[in-house]
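User: structure tokens for this one?
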Amino acid sequence: MSSGAVALLAVVVAVAAFVQGSSGLGFALIVAPVVGIVAPGALPVFLLALMVPLNSYVAWRERHSLDMRGAGWITAARLASTPAGLLVLVAVPDRHLGVLVGAATVLAAVVSLFAPAFAPGRRSYLAAGAVTGVTETATGVGGPPLALVYQHRPPAELRATVATCFLAGQIASLGALFVSGQAHTHELVPALMAVPAVCLGVWLSRFAHRYLDAARMRITVLVFALVSGAALMVGL
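Assistant:
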């Protein structure tokens, strides 16, 4: 990657880490389309690797608000569907991965914008976990199904539970990618370079997460996802 691309990704990653640390969602929706445009070969390892430290911190910070029951069902389904995500990644050529990421981002944003309110239960937990396992392993984008399940719950519960589910699933996806030969250690280098940006963004979020208008931030993130995902799909 050029120095300009590295600088752009550092800024985008820092902003995305701040957004997710504050609202509980948004990192992959913000970062994936940009990475898909400037460095498509870095997906999905770039996203998955960076979200491990990000979600470790958020899960620890919000641990007292964790929904243990929901996290258990989601994680079980998430782990069970990881092999399906690997099959998608194998089946889709690298040159088409950007289109897949863009389409997944736009679809997830549209569903998140217009889905009606509902009370989550076991079926919704299992469905969200299964969909996340496929999409996140294949593209790095997996947050919207979890955000849908918890969008009408208290913000702290959303942040704690989504971060915990992400953390378990991202470690599993990374392990599966490396064991299956779909990822290699040199792909971790861009992510390691961006870790300071993650740390900066999530550190700043600790000053905002109790006061941020999460509903407004959620709309902002989803609108950005629609625009950037559409741009990625048409090859801009």
